[in-house]
């Protein structure tokens, strides 16, 4: 049975130099982990950073059967190679996420916003 994981990112002050970009993830029954990303400016970067943090934790924990639920259509479709990545900052993040996804064997799937909010609180 797959380990169910959730991830989400966002930004207060989206797109500004003073933006507070954050992300959270949850692996199975483990506590929610939340962090702020100081080198990011947009909610899309927050989504990517949260996914990368989750995938890194999966790799470090040697979890190979994860199903990752995320509500960002942009991230899901860019990482899944259905949509092009036009922004260079996102391209590098997408490539990192794709590499980690391959390493961990995790599956990335879209879920509704309300499910993410119920689990992660934002």
Walkthrough of the structure:
With 122 residues, the chain is of the alpha/beta class. It has one domain (3-120): 2-Layer Sandwich (Nucleotidyltransferase, domain 5), CATH 3.30.420.10. It has helices spanning 43-61, 73-79, 88-104, 113-120, and strands spanning 3-12, 20-27, 33-37, 66-70, 107-110. Strand 2 (20-27) and strand 3 (33-37) form a beta hairpin. Helix 1 runs parallel beside helix 3 (88-104). The relative contact order is 0.22. The mean pLDDT is 95.
Number of E-type strands: 5
Please state the structural category: alpha/beta
What CATH architecture would you give? 2-Layer Sandwich
Q: What coarse outline follows from CA principal-axis ratios?
A: globular
Count of helical regions? 4
Order of helices and strands: EEEHEHHEH
Strands of the biggest beta sheet: in what spatial order? 3-2-1-4-5
The Rg value, from CA coordinates, equals 13 Å
Secondary-structure map:
Layout: E1 3-12, E2 20-27, E3 33-37, H1 43-61, E4 66-70, H2 73-79, H3 88-104, E5 107-110, H4 113-120
Parallel strand pairs: 1-4, 4-5
Antiparallel strand pairs: 1-2, 2-3
Helix pairs in contact: 1-3
Keywords:
alpha/beta; Nucleotidyltransferase, domain 5; 4 helices; globular; 26% strand; 122 residues
């Amino acid at each position: 049975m797959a380990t169910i994981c959730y991830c989400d990112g966002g930004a207060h002050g989206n797109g500004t130099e003073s933006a507070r970009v954050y992300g959270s993830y949850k692996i199975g029954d483990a506590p929610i982990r939340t962090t702020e990303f100081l080198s990011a400016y947009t909610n899309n970067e927050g989504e990517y950073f949260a996914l990368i943090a989750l995938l890194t934790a999966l790799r470090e924990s040697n979890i190979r059967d994860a199903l990752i639920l995320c509500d960002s259509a942009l991230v899901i479709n860019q990482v899944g190679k259905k949509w092009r990545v036009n922004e260079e900052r996102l391209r590098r993040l997408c490539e990192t996420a794709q590499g980690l996804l391959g390493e961990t064997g995790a599956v990335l799937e879209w879920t509704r916003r309300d499910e993410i909010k119920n689990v992660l609180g934002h």
